[in-house]
Amino acid sequence: MKGVAFDLDGVITDTAKFHFEAWSKLALEKFDLELPAEFESQLKGISRIESLERILAFGKLSGKYTPAQVAELADEKNTYYVAAISKLTQADILPGISQLLADLKAQQVKLSLASASKNAPMILEKLGLLTYFDAIVDPSKLKAGKPAPDIFIEAAKAVGLAPSECVGLEDASAGVAAIKAAGMVAVAIGDKEELAQADTVVSSTADLNYDLLVTSYQQAQG
Ligand code: G6P
Ligand code: MG
């Protein structure tokens, strides 16, 4: 295992609730639409514009807005989201993650970030974790989002490695699908059934550690 590619939201810090709150506010204000709670997990790993398209489809509003209006609505959601995450600090790092990053660094494992979020660099900065990462993939440069493999292929390439030399960490099923499609070993955090495609699933980030990643990598590579 020469590299680890991290998802951000739900792996390093828990921002899913802020995304959901921002989308809920926008949907209520602009479309008089109440989003069901399931949307919180359904939008994990899904890009900003695609999330909006799913919300519009749910409200039977697909095609009702011009691309410029869609972009404006997405910007508005982002304004709500950025306001909500402005107060993030080191205290918002999920359990086990700081230790894991420090141990991986000490073992000279290359670290890259494979997040669909355009806010990722700002969030890492607020958490005080920016300097751990050797590369951060820019999601706006990718052809296809998760579950397509592009972001994890890029995450390996950006640190000079092949996907087969890396472990990918994810909490979303679209993300696990992307890791596997890229040819990486997948370690997932969350529900065993929902994330069954992963090579290893743990229920909390507190269960993650350097040895677990190495063991998962070795077992998966046979
Ligand atoms: C992550 C989150 C998604 C979010 C996406 C884009 O993948 O899990 O819920 O839509 O990033 O985030 P952004 O900050 O660019 O709107
Ligand atoms: Mg995630």
Automatic annotation (TrEMBL):
It comes from Ligilactobacillus agilis DSM 20509. Transmembrane segments: none annotated. Keywords: Magnesium, Metal-binding. The lineage of its organism: Bacteria, Bacillati, Bacillota, Bacilli, Lactobacillales. One of its GO terms (molecular function) is beta-phosphoglucomutase activity. The active site is at 7 (nucleophile), 9 (proton donor/acceptor). The record marks 115, 146 as: Important for catalytic activity and assists the phosphoryl transfer reaction to Asp8 by balancing charge and orienting the reacting groups. This is Beta-phosphoglucomutase glucose-1-phosphate phosphodismutase. Gene3D superfamilies: HAD superfamily/HAD-like, Putative phosphatase, domain 2. GO terms for biological process: carbohydrate metabolic process.
